[in-house]
Amino acid sequence: MAQPETDSTHPGAPAASINSPHPTEQLNTSEKEKAEQKAFSQWRRNLSLITGLGLTPEEFQAEVEKADRKQCELRKEQLIKSSPGVRFMMNNLAKAGCPLAKNMFDCGVCDMTKSGGFSKDHGILLCQNGFFSKKHQEHTMIHEMIHMYDHCVFNVDWSNLRHHACSEVRAASLSGDCTWTREVRRGFYAFTKQHQECVKRRAILSVQANPSCPSRDAAEKAVNAVFESCYNDTRPFEEVQI
Ligand SMILES: [Zn+2]
User: Fold this and answer.
1) 240 confidence band (pLDDT: 50, 70, 90)
2) Which positions are tagged coiled coil (predicted)?
3) According to the model, what pLDDT value does residue 28 have?
4) What is the pTM of this model?
5) How would you classify residue 59: left for phi > 0, otherwise alpha for psi between -120 and 50, otherwise beta?
6) CA 43 to centroid of ligand 1, rounded, Å
7) Under the phi-then-psi rule, with left for phi > 0, alpha for psi from -120 to 50, and beta for the rest, what region is 65?
8) DSSP character for 102?
9) Least confident of 16-30, 182-196, 200-214
10) Phi, psi angles (nearest 5°) of residue 21
């Protein structure tokens, strides 16, 4: 990598020495050098964040996590204010008697296969390193809020695969996880089937990750058993939001 110009040692400037006849000038030069050194350090640090050079892997990871968290928190605040789906679910959680407190709606680091999670004890986790867009974060927020709503209203037993499957079907269907466009949804029946297939596939994957689930086969059976009734249960929405 090319070195920056500010990394020079100022060959034209007098060397600092106790014999220098111009202590004031010497001080000025020294301060100037310090300022330049500081600017260079800042410059190198900014470059390091882009390239990863100059930082230990741990430092680089910490910087990435800090940046991810900042973006996740910022988008969360924006979506709470502006997303109709997020606002609708926040209101309905409050109406159902389970208001979503800010400290139960957190950004954090997850393994790369996840984008969010709901825990009855800890609330909603948004995977700050798992979002590929703001829309993805919005869908994830709504998805997890539907799980929270189900837990609040329907008393879900999360170790019961059929209970879990029902909530996953509803969350995948209502959150926008399987959204195409409204036009396509209205105009082409085949795409309605695709929406259902997408909901089913995603619900199976989620149920499969339940520690109580012994196999993919068991997850498929649970989802198929509840699909019809849970896909059609759009509460608190009036219809599928696609
Ligand atoms: Zn889910």
Assistant:
1) low
2) none
3) 53
4) 0.75
5) alpha
6) 43
7) alpha
8) G
9) 16-30
10) -80, -5
Residue 171 has pLDDT above 90, yes or no: yes
**Spatial CA neighbour of 100 closest among 116, 74, 129, 122:** 122
C-alpha angle 120-94-233 in degrees, rounded to nearest 5:
75
Distance 211 CA to ligand 1 centre (A): 14
> Which strands make up the sheet holding 123-127, listed edge to edge?
105-108, 123-127, 116-119
Q: Which two tokens stand for residue 120?
A: 């009855």
Asked if omega into 236 is within 30° of 0 (cis), the reply is yes
115 in Cβ contact with 176 (< 8 Å): no
pLDDT tens-place string over residues 64-107: 899 999 999 999 999 999 999 999 999 999 999 999 988 889 99
Cα separation, 126 vs 124, whole angstroms: 7
Which secondary-structure segment (H or E) carries 174?
helix 161-174
- Find the 13 Cα to ligand 1 centroid distance in Å: 65
Active site residue 228: no
Strand partners, 118: 124
Considering the candidates 65, 144, 183, 238, report the single residue annotated as catalytic: 144
CB 132 within 8 A of CB 156: no
Q: How far is the CA of 50 from the centre of ligand 1 (A)?
A: 34
